[in-house]
What does this fold into?
Amino acid sequence: MKVVQTKISNIEYELLRKYAESRGLTIMEALREIIRKHVLEGSIDPDDPIFTEEPVVKRKGIKERTSIEHDKILYGE
It folds into this structure.
């Protein structure tokens, strides 16, 4: 785990403190939550197979292997 330090204004601190308090979090937990929401939400790798795999269609003669090979698709070989 890494330690990150920064300086913020009194207003920023009060906003952060109120945000944390309203959610029953410590300031550390609130900062982690904010980072996860801001940095991770909405970022999708367009080449990720989970988003590029064709839809499952039940047709005669088509063999769908996604359920069999889901670990390979999700985590690589």
